[in-house]
Amino acid sequence: MTGYLIVSAVLLTCGVVCMASKRNAVGVLMGVELVLNAASVNFVAAAEFGPPAVPVQVATADAIGVGLDGQIAALFVIVLAAAEAAVALAIVLAFFNQHGTADVDAASELRG
Amino acid sequence: MDPAALLSLIVFLPAAGAVLTACAPAAVARWIGLGTVAATFLLTTAALLPAYFEATPDDHGMRLVTDAEWVGSFNIRYTLGVDGISLPLVVLTGLVFLLSAATSWNVSEKPRAYWSLFLLLETGVLGTFLALDLFLFYVLFEVMLLPMYFLIGVWGGPNRAYAAIKFFLYTLAGSLLLLVALLMLYAAGGSGVGASTFDMRLLSDIARGAGTGEYAGVTIDRGTQTLAFWLMLGCFLIKLPAVPFHTWLPDAHVEAPTPVSMILAGVLLKVGGYGILRLAYPLAPLGAAAGAEIVCALGAVSIIYGALAAMAQTDFKRLVAYSSVSHMGYVLLGLGAWTLSEPDFWKMGFSGAIFQMVGHGITSTGMFFAVGVLYDRVHHREINRFGGLLRRMPIYAALGLGMSFAALGLPGLCGFVGEAVTVFAAWPASPWAAAAAAFGIILTAGYMLRMVQRVFLGAEYVGPLRENLSQLSGRETAIFAVLMALAVALGVYPRPVFDVTEPAVGRLVDTLGDAVEADRERNDGETVIAGAAE
Amino acid sequence: MSVPALLIAATFLPLVGALAGLTARWWRPRKDDRAAGFVASACILGSFGLALTAALRWDGPEPIAGSWYEIFSLAGVTLELGHHIDSLTLTMFCLVSLVASCVCVFALGYLSDELTHEHRDHSFEEELVRPGRFHLFFGYLCLFVTAMLLLVIGGNLFHVFVGWELVGACSYLLIGFYYERPIAGAAATKAFVVNRIGDAGFLIGLAALLAANGDVRFVSLFEAAGAGELSRTALLIGGFGVLAGCVGKSAQFPLQVWLPDAMAGPTPVSALVHSATMVAGGVYLIGRMTPALPGEVLLTVAYLGCATALIGAAPALFQTDLKGILAYSSISQLGYMMLALGVTGWGAGLFHLVTHAFFKSLMFLCAGSVIVACHHAQDVTKLGGLMRKMPVTAGAMLVGVIAISGLAIPGVTLFGEALSFSGFHSKDAILSHALAFTEANPAHAILFWVPLVTAGLTALYMVRLWGLTFAGTPGSATKGAHESPAVMLAPILILAGLAAFCAIGGDGGPLYGFLTRTAPEVGTFALFESPTEAAVDEAHHHAEMMGLIAAGLGAAAGLALFGPWRRAPGHARAEGLKDAAVVRWLRSGWGFDAVYRALAVRPTLLAGEVAALTDRSALDGAVHGTATLARRVARFERSVDERLVDGVVRGVGRLARGFGRLFGATQSGGLRQYVAALAACAVGLAVLAVVLLAG
Amino acid sequence: MARDWQGVLPDLALSLPAFAPELIVCATIVALLLTRLFGMARWLPAGSVAFGGSALATALACLQWGGAFESPSDGWAGLVRNDALTVYVRVLCLLGWNLTVTLTLLTGVPRPSIDPADDDGPDFHVPLAAVALGSVLMGQANHLLMLFLAVEMASVPAYVLVGFRKGSREAGEAALKYLVFGAGAAGVMMYGASLLAGVTGTLSLPALGERLALIPLEGLEWNEPGVGGAAIAGVVFILCGLAFKLSLVPFHFWTPDAFQGALAEVSGFLSVAPKIGAFALLVRFGLSLHGPFGETGDALLTGLGLACAAGAAVSMTFGNLAAFAQKDLGRLLAYSTVAQSGTMLLGVAACFLGVGRGDGDLAVAGLAGTLLYLTAYLFLNLGAFAAVAIFRNRTLRTDVASLAGLGSKMPWVAGAFAVSLVGLVGLPPTAGFVGKLAVFAAALSDRVGSPLLFAAALIAAANTVASLFYYFRPIRSLYLDAAPEGTSGAPIGPPVTGSERAYLVLLAVPVLLILPLLGRLGALCDAIAEAVL
């Protein structure tokens, strides 16, 4: 379990750094995907392994692990990531059409 | 009429008038406005006074109490009532609004909006004086703000936006202090009991540990009372206004149109004094006992500071505004006169403060009216550019002179009684404050007479638009004469006001004294126990 | 009618006249109509009649006290209006109403130039034409009489204070009667404000006594003070407070500065208000309060009176204004009265009050007569030689001069009495009390010598006044002068008679006898020893002689300098003393005005400016500063969105840049900072939460 | 998820009726899409469909009123919770949707094109409906997955809505910013959910507290976070996601940009419906951390309450201060929503603290206060943005200065706007005051017990004063400032129609007349709060 958590943490870090450092909007969105994937890894891991280090006194067996819920959650994450990506690409396209660039730094016209 | 419904009618008749005015054609707005105000005035005098004297007071000295369930979940009730503290102010409100409405007769810009706001303001003021439920009080207290903002902001002078928002900001800051204090007391008053209450009467009982029924034994601790007292005091000091929270007042007055100034000085400032008497003291007697001396001192400071600042003004209206600061200082002085050993002097202080509020209501209304009359004619207020008005407008100047004398506290006119009584009452409590206040009369005479000399006396009017200096119209004379007559009547025979206030003030002082006494005993008891423990 | 009823009626009867005068513009719109004056005169005369009746009916030394109505009352504190009637009250009533009657009748003639729509005021460079204000004057006058009587009848200090302020206001109106003249307005304001300084003290004293005693009725105050129930502090504060009020009202040092300026009012006003009645109010009140005054206060009264007597007399020597001389003389004489009260000469002080009222109002009316005759010229250097043109006035004035100087012909007796006028008797009484006092308390010897010197000075300046005005060759302003009409002369003659003979018998005479019927007993004081009656009697002889010598010397000097045999016109005779700096200094009343302007008026105005400035800059400044600060912060905050996140998450940014360099891309920009901030905040908060919850 | 399959049918039978309004929303979405497909748009405009759907959904939601109080139940196998709070949120969100649709019909957004087949209507109304659906779902999510789904459901269409103004640079930029920030937030939240799931072994909110109670918080070392640390990090990450939806500082950056770039109608809706849902979700999530056992839950919830109080204070202050300098109405109102969220959060803080410290009264008061405030806020913000939209249609500008002198030219709109702004300040007798009072009353009720909450309430009071500055700037422009030279007298744009007026009045009436109805409303909120707790 710990291993998976570490992997997911690394993924998360990569995603965040990617979001923060990429100039291109598409790149930023890829960072988001990474973060979501980190979550997916966690979910799947949680489905497989019980909660670590919890002194389990809970009565029912299925309560120990996330079980199927985790895997379904991972699926949903993927689906939603796809949906989001679709919308995101549309918006980026629109932005590109108007600004002639997909550079997120160009998005600095709205100021108070 | 059912006496219980009378108060509701008084409070909401102007609001109804406001709605009606807003819907009516602009041409008849002023008729509806004046009619409503006049009807309200009649209600506050012809109907309220007899009903008041016929009614029997309840346990808390309140009469004509209307009580109805309103918001169950917060235990908010719709409670109105009147006692000797509020009655003079209610009558004053009716009168000042009537005179002010008469002064507003020629408002031509957006008359519908003007009159609606005007009437709404009256509802707010009357409601504030009559509400017995803290929530209701607060709501109506704030209802006064918006109309005032617009009345200053839309119909005001050149710098009106600044003045209006300044007025609003100060007062709102104050009212939020009040809100915080009220909610604290609300919570504290319900601690350990099922229901907190917003009822002033119950809360004041609880505050001095004399709650009955389900509130028996509930008290509000000293820390909460102290904090709440200072918060409430802050609110009312701003409203009053006392130095150093007064700077909104001159600006607001200078920019406000004449009728609004009359209302502001004549009535709205009184809400501050009333609030101290009705909320700050009874709801937090322990905090108040500790802070009374400061109230007294602030009063003295206001008197001197206001007078000094007035002396430096060259704008007639600003001068009168600062004189309001100074005169309201006497109210504070009286309110701060907590002489525990001499309850009679204590009562005298409160009574004097109420009287001073009434007296100032008349004189300041008159003074602002006087300024307005001039401003209407020559469109400036520069003291040094008047002169000779006693010659050009003898009736006006004579009345103005009389009003100035009333304002500077000449015996036989209403300003004197309040000043003298508050100074006398403050002496045993705080001789220094009383002495300072006594010296205030020198400064008052100084700036008033300086103004009189430059405006009314002298050989010739030296400002612009000399040809506009026409005699007072009948309407103006009537307004001014009514004020002057009242100033004389109350100055010569102030007993009616004192007679009305006395039972309420007496009751208030007794309960405050009990609260302080009980607290002292409790502390003594604790000390004894602590001593025994050692 | 009972005595109180009579006096109350007498008090309020002039109010009818006041109303008549103030409203005459409606019921008598014609300007050349004396109706208001007649009504006023009738009312005041009626008042006098009532007062006289009351005085005759009053039987006995016991004062009659009563309450009218309460202003404020609770069990432990009472403020009320009420009366306290004793011989002093009755004397004052008769005095005030009598002098007022005379003045009122005199004014019917004096103010006849106001009976027109086009009154011309010559005191302006360009002649000012205005409607006359005949009615108004009588309205004010009656109002004043009411206020004065209200003051005198007062049965408690609060009531007296009410009257006190009201007479002040009436005085304001009367001084400012010629309000077009800047000087009149300024003088009126000055008088009121200076008086208010004293009144502030009065108010404090009142507060102290009220707090100590629960009410301020004279009867109960005296009882309590006598029984030692009042604390010393209260008595001292009360006493000094009341004294402060009296100092203001009676133009005592150091508040005497307003009285000379008050001469800007019409002359009848000066005669009534500023010499005979109102300014005597302070003396009256000290007299009234004597039983409750501690020794410290009395001694202060004596010294203040002593100082005032001299301070008033010296400028009078050099004044060139007819009324100015009289005004300073009034100050000086009021000082005498105070002195007498201070040295426990209760009867003497009030005796002098009465006699002074008569002869000083007489002199003012004579001066008024001269002024009318000389077309409102009142500079003595421009007068002179009027003796022949106005013999009656001159004669009457002479009576006044002799009376005030305290001259008498010793040895010659008339009806078993030294040949003397009223002033001699009263001044004699004062001096003998002062002498007895200084003999009993040698440390206070100055209290006798100063008034003695002043007596000489009085004679000197009075003779000078008379000499410059009536003797010598006619001055420049006396052209066309003629004797005044009967309506003005009649009151002058009546007052002359009173000034001459009212004090007949001295301190054995009827007036003194009546006045002292309810005299308070002389108390015993720790601070000084009160002279016994026997000592006073003993001192009488010495004092009489010394007083006469002083007055005689003064008069002789005056006659020598300004006597009728000096033929030069007034200005030439006055010239010798014109330009010396010390003369200018004295003439300006010891320069008090300048000193006060520098030490009190300027600083107060400055304090006012400071207060206004504080408002504008400090208080408003604080508010504005807060607003500005908020706006600054807001602008700063706004830039947080776009730029400052850069700074806030600089660490993360640097990290990102590090990674970015790793990936071959270094940038910085808005949107990514948002995201970086998001991540940073999320992580930071998580860490914080862990630390707080688990740590 | 080893579930008993036999339970599915009864579960379905139970869930479906309760879910009816959501189904209607879904049906509306489908219908909207279909109109485009079959060219029905010629006789059935998308707006009408949306209106009909929203009205029907709202009506259905209202009909569910009573049942949820009596028998709260789980739906969809525990994914959603159907209780009083659910119904309340559902009604409010759907009402907000309905009102927004009405407004778009009145203001002509999206602009009807000449060719009905080319109408933008569906493009606009579908995401709008989807946001509404997401908001409603947020109010009932009872499961971490549902939580994530609901938030995404409310977010993703919102990106589209913000960018709806085709060809507008502003809108494009706003959408991009919103998108990037939102996606980041969603990622963080999802990660947090996954952490929590991993640590506790459950995704179901009700079970969360029970499991968390097993984790001892004491003895956790910060450098060895371990399980407890992961749990807390998970909670915090989820809260960050919610804070993003609530636009609380420091997760508010998107708000001003998005609201300035978007149409006022959209901004209004986005500031209301998702926020109501998110608050409900926050409460539900927060309460789920509190198991019936152990001190972990107490400590967590107390900490959460304090964090909320601090966050509230920060949000209010930053939002208000930032709003001072704004010139654009949309941006100004955006910062105002940041500040308003802060104030509302105060009630939630009181609620959490109350639960954490076992003070039931405080908890109920706090939650009820927030609910009351949200109700008021719905009308206030919708009213304000509606007025902005109507002004925009006339002046073609959205800056504060463009309002100068309109007070007398467009009295109804100006009046409604002023009422909304006054309400947002929180002045009586408007609804804003009632909400503020309820929240303050809860926060101030215990000075000694929770000084931080008390202090936050004091800060809130001070902020109310400060907010006067910017809320009254538009009012000042409307009424106090003269119309700019040259334009006076000339009417601006088409006159305000009666239906527009009616709409504004409809929004203003509840704001103004809340006081007489306060008793009922207060009791209702109390009842809901009690039911939830």
TrEMBL record, chain A:
<keyword id="KW-0874">Quinone</keyword>
<keyword id="KW-0520">NAD</keyword>
<dbReference type="Pfam" id="PF00420">
    <property type="entry name" value="Oxidored_q2"/>
</dbReference>
<keyword id="KW-1003">Cell membrane</keyword>
<dbReference type="InterPro" id="IPR001133">
    <property type="entry name" value="NADH_UbQ_OxRdtase_chain4L/K"/>
</dbReference>
<keyword id="KW-0472">Membrane</keyword>
<keyword id="KW-0812">Transmembrane</keyword>
<dbReference type="GO" id="GO:0016491">
    <property type="term" value="F:oxidoreductase activity"/>
</dbReference>
<keyword id="KW-0830">Ubiquinone</keyword>
<keyword id="KW-1278">Translocase</keyword>
<dbReference type="InterPro" id="IPR039428">
    <property type="entry name" value="NUOK/Mnh_C1-like"/>
</dbReference>
<keyword id="KW-0813">Transport</keyword>
UniProtKB/TrEMBL annotation, chain B:
<keyword id="KW-0472">Membrane</keyword>
<dbReference type="Pfam" id="PF00361">
    <property type="entry name" value="Proton_antipo_M"/>
</dbReference>
<dbReference type="InterPro" id="IPR010227">
    <property type="entry name" value="NADH_Q_OxRdtase_chainM/4"/>
</dbReference>
<dbReference type="InterPro" id="IPR001750">
    <property type="entry name" value="ND/Mrp_TM"/>
</dbReference>
<feature type="transmembrane region" description="Helical">
    <location>
        <begin position="31"/>
        <end position="53"/>
    </location>
</feature>
<feature type="transmembrane region" description="Helical">
    <location>
        <begin position="353"/>
        <end position="375"/>
    </location>
</feature>
<keyword id="KW-0812">Transmembrane</keyword>
<comment type="similarity">
    <text>Belongs to the complex I subunit 4 family.</text>
</comment>
<feature type="transmembrane region" description="Helical">
    <location>
        <begin position="85"/>
        <end position="105"/>
    </location>
</feature>
<keyword id="KW-0560">Oxidoreductase</keyword>
<feature type="domain" description="NADH:quinone oxidoreductase/Mrp antiporter transmembrane">
    <location>
        <begin position="131"/>
        <end position="444"/>
    </location>
</feature>
<feature type="transmembrane region" description="Helical">
    <location>
        <begin position="320"/>
        <end position="341"/>
    </location>
</feature>
Automatic annotation (TrEMBL), chain C:
<keyword id="KW-0812">Transmembrane</keyword>
<feature type="transmembrane region" description="Helical">
    <location>
        <begin position="90"/>
        <end position="111"/>
    </location>
</feature>
<feature type="transmembrane region" description="Helical">
    <location>
        <begin position="486"/>
        <end position="506"/>
    </location>
</feature>
<keyword id="KW-0560">Oxidoreductase</keyword>
<feature type="transmembrane region" description="Helical">
    <location>
        <begin position="325"/>
        <end position="347"/>
    </location>
</feature>
<keyword id="KW-0472">Membrane</keyword>
<dbReference type="InterPro" id="IPR018393">
    <property type="entry name" value="NADHpl_OxRdtase_5_subgr"/>
</dbReference>
<protein>
    <submittedName>
        <fullName>NADH-quinone oxidoreductase subunit L</fullName>
        <ecNumber>1.6.5.11</ecNumber>
    </submittedName>
</protein>
<dbReference type="InterPro" id="IPR003945">
    <property type="entry name" value="NU5C-like"/>
</dbReference>
<dbReference type="Pfam" id="PF00361">
    <property type="entry name" value="Proton_antipo_M"/>
</dbReference>
<feature type="domain" description="NADH-Ubiquinone oxidoreductase (complex I) chain 5 N-terminal">
    <location>
        <begin position="73"/>
        <end position="114"/>
    </location>
</feature>
<feature type="transmembrane region" description="Helical">
    <location>
        <begin position="446"/>
        <end position="466"/>
    </location>
</feature>
TrEMBL record, chain D:
<feature type="transmembrane region" description="Helical">
    <location>
        <begin position="46"/>
        <end position="67"/>
    </location>
</feature>
<feature type="transmembrane region" description="Helical">
    <location>
        <begin position="144"/>
        <end position="164"/>
    </location>
</feature>
<feature type="transmembrane region" description="Helical">
    <location>
        <begin position="266"/>
        <end position="287"/>
    </location>
</feature>
<keyword id="KW-0520">NAD</keyword>
<feature type="transmembrane region" description="Helical">
    <location>
        <begin position="87"/>
        <end position="109"/>
    </location>
</feature>
<feature type="transmembrane region" description="Helical">
    <location>
        <begin position="332"/>
        <end position="356"/>
    </location>
</feature>
<keyword id="KW-0560">Oxidoreductase</keyword>
<comment type="subunit">
    <text>NDH-1 is composed of 14 different subunits. Subunits NuoA, H, J, K, L, M, N constitute the membrane sector of the complex.</text>
</comment>
<keyword id="KW-1003">Cell membrane</keyword>
<dbReference type="Pfam" id="PF00361">
    <property type="entry name" value="Proton_antipo_M"/>
</dbReference>
<keyword id="KW-0472">Membrane</keyword>
<keyword id="KW-0874">Quinone</keyword>
